[in-house]
Amino acid sequence: MKNSQGGADAADRNSNRHPKEEMDRLAGLLRRYQHEYYVLSAPSVSDEEYDRLFERLKYLESEYPEYARPDSPSQRVGSDLMHELPEVEHSIPVLSLDKAYTDEGVLSWMEKTAGAAGEPVTFLAEEKIDGVSIVLYYEDGVLQRAVTRGNGYVGNDVTPNVKTIGAVPLSLHKVSDLTVRGEIYLPKDRFQDINSRMPEPFANPRNLASGTLRRVRSVETARVPLTMFAYEGIFPDQEETHDRVLTRLEELGFRVNPRFRLFRIDPADPSASGSDWEEFKAFLKQENEERDSLTYEIDGLVIKVNELAPRERLGYTSHHPRWAVAYKFESPQGITRVRDIEVQIGRTGRATPVARVEPVSIGGSTITNVTLHNQEYISALELSIGDQVAVSRRGDVIPAVERVIEKDAGSPPVWKMPENCPSCGRKLQQKGAHHFCVNPDCPAIRFGRLRFFAAKGQMDIDNLGPETVNTLFEMGLVEDIADFYRADYSQLLGQEGFGPKKVELIKRGVEKSKQRSFRTVLTALGISDLGENVADLLISGGFSSMEGLLEAADRDDRDALSAIAGIGPKMAEGILSSLRDRRLREQISALAEAGISMSAEEDRRKAAGEASGGEESGQDLPRIFEGQTWCVTGSFESFTPREEAMEEVKKRGGRVVSSVTGKTTHLLAGSGAGSKLEKARSLGVSVVDEAEFLRLLGRGESENKAERQ
Asked: What angle do CA 361, 364, 365 make, to 5 degrees?
């Protein structure tokens, strides 16, 4: 007999029960308490008592694994062992739904459906939960598989993860075999709480739920409070109506959304006596008005034929069942189709899939390209080429695919990242959620670094846009960032679009960029994690020269960098590792030879040399913006680009941010100022126009115009 911690034999050390008997008793109690908590929202025991019983069961299962049940409540906590997400075939069609966007559209569908049903039918309307579709397969009363929708015929097996969801019964006691369709979702309040702590926030609860459900460690899924509504059940002894199916599912322990209604409607004469058409329209309006007050997200209603026998006669198309339709609250704006998916390689080697979509107008802009982030994002969407998708503009800027609306008729497999880099052909390597090309000579990486260095927000070299940089790169005139300052731009003459005037403007832009600050140079080098804020932290923390940073890299002095508030050990290690790279050091040396600033002291000398000979000459500029936080919006006559104005703020002790928040003290607003100006006014931020800003700098407008000529 196996001994327990206290030396007991096969008998349970705390009772006269055999371990198996005690484990069965505890499992039964815990299943009941889980049902009360997750399904009924009416717990009958305290958290402390539940935890005590749960820990007792876990202990017994560790001591007597031969008695552990596959449907044990202990599986709710998940495992930290990695598991695959294999593709499996569905035993039932798991299709999407046809769509209607108006009352009249629903009535037209009802009329067509009722005419083809072969007998009188009623219609049941349910809320369309904006979550992740799941199919649960029970055999001999035990949950055997939980499979995502996939392309409707093949999905991913996510059983270990679904078992952690308290609203999903692990075993059934009144039926042996059952297939259940449901929607897994994350309540709004839980989403807000979790998302506020995410380094990269999710756009909506559905995307967070979908990503969580595809974790390779079920213990990670268990940490997110996902739940589920069941909305379809296929029994061996099938019921006659759908509302009875819902009742039976609830009796078996499933959570069923109670907000559904049954309607008797005569589509041929909806206003006839006894027809519920007016009540149905009122229900649609009520649901639309109340959706924001619900604890979960819905994006419409699903209207179904309630009788199951006519459903069999109505059947399916290759896309959707003929006996159900989705009524969408929102208009079909932003709905498009994926034509292709391409992989772009950035300056860091990161491979980003980009969807080429049919042109769609959103918010006044025509969208043709949409980022798909990474393979994990695509897998969570279960996206294939040819799918119809909903596209939004997150923050009114970045187009993103929110969900798949309709799978392609040919049911192509979910898109997979290619094995090799599309630019250089080398094998891609996966690091975390992303894939990377690690070939430093990859043409796409080299071009990405060049474009980044010359771009606005970095060295901002006038007249060196992406197309011009590409021409220089293809001609071999510029191969690394230092080449911008030693290239023979006269070789551009004769190329299409490059006349003497354009070439002269490029030369002036390159020369002007030599006046950029050391802080700007640091960020333009493209070192991972070293953006504007980190550059400010390094300089204020004592690393105000390239020489000091390179010496720290040679010493691998991580402690010195990580001692600076805001720079952790991992970031410090990454920065120092990049600064030890031979190629980067050669480029830094060449930039210094070209006259690029390599220290904050050099910035001060340049600023003093540019002064007009007044009392500031040869001295630091007065720190008139000390303790202030500035943001900029709009366009200006005296500062092109507008970032030049923010450089003036930094030179005088101010801090610069990219967005207006409650901590922003001043907004410099030029012509065409938009949402930042509105937000600044609502927060009581001081708004400064260009004339006032020039006065603060002690420079007249005419003086600035003369400098630009």
From this structure: 60
Q: Residue 575 to residues 56, 145, 284, 524: CA-CA distances in angstroms?
A: 48, 46, 56, 14
Paired strand residues for 510: none
Which stretches of 87-129 are DSSP H helices? 103-117
pLDDT range class, residue 9, cuts 50, 70, 90 = very low
Question: Do 443-515 and 518-606 agree at the fold level?
Answer: yes
Q: How far is CA 314 from CA 113, 437, 638, in A?
A: 8, 51, 70
Burial class (CB in 10 A: 0-12, 13-18, 19+), 196: exposed
- Select from 545, 542, 569 the least CA-distant residue to 557: 569
How far from chain centre, in Å, is Cα 250? 34
Q: What is the pLDDT of residues 25-50, one digit of tens each?
A: 888 888 787 777 766 667 787 877 87
Name which of 380, 384, 376 is nearest 412 in CA terms: 384
CB 371 within 8 A of CB 400: yes
* 549-604 pLDDT, tens digit each: 999 999 999 999 988 877 878 889 999 999 999 999 999 999 999 999 999 888 77
Q: Report the distance separating Cα 416 and Cα 682, nearest Å.
A: 46
- The domain spans of the chain are 19-77, 98-328, 335-434, 443-515, 518-606, 621-708
- Known catalytic residues are 128
Query: What is the fold, at CATH topology level, of the domain defined by 335-434?
Result: OB fold (Dihydrolipoamide Acetyltransferase, E2P) (2.40.50)
Q: What sign for the dihedral angle of Cα 598, 600, 601, 605?
A: positive
Task: Give the C-alpha distances (Å, rounded to integers) separating 81 from 78, 144, 160, 542.
Answer: 9, 19, 10, 44
- The answer on pLDDT for 642 being more than 80 is no
CB atoms within 10 A of CB 27: 22
Mean pLDDT of 399-414: 85
Q: What is the pLDDT of residue 479?
A: 93
Q: Among residues of the chain, what percentage have pLDDT more than 70? A: 90
CATH architecture of 518-606: Orthogonal Bundle (1.10)
Beta bridge partners of 530: none
Tell me how far CA of residue 220 lies from CA of 35, 78, 390, in angstroms.
22, 8, 28
User: Is-contact 61 68, C-beta < 8 A?
Assistant: yes
Residue 625: name the closest of 600, 602, 657 by CA: 657
Under CATH, what is the fold of the domain 443-515?
Answer: DNA polymerase; domain 1 (1.10.150)
- Which letter, b or e, does each residue of 288-327 get, where b requires 16 or more Cβ atoms within 10 Å of its Cβ? eeebeeeebbbbbbbbbbbbbebbeebeeeebbbbbbbbb
Q: What is the C-alpha separation between 91 and 589, in angstroms, rounded?
A: 65
**Quick one: tokens of 321?**
């069942």
The pair of three-digit structure tokens given for residue 175, joined into one six-digit string: 């039926």
Query: Which CATH number is associated with domain 621-708?
Result: 3.40.50.10190
Q: For 613, phi and psi rounded to 5 degrees?
A: 95, 5
State in Å, rounded, how far the first CA of the chain is from the last one: 95
Range in 149-163, 389-403, 453-467 with the lowest mean pLDDT: 389-403
Helix or strand or coil: residue 609?
A: helix
Q: What is the CATH number of domain 19-77?
A: 1.10.287.610
Q: What is the CATH number that goes with domain 98-328?
A: 3.30.470.30
Q: Which of 166, 100, 164, 158 is nearest to 133 (CA)?
A: 158
Return the structure tokens found at 248. Answer: 């039976």
Which residue has 């003929």 as its token pair?
322
Q: Provide DSSP, 304-370.
A: EESBHHHHHHH-B-SSSBTTEEEEESS-STTEEEEEEEEEEE-TT-EEEEEEEEEEEEETTEEEEEE
Whether the CB-CB separation of 552 and 584 falls below 8 Å is answered with no
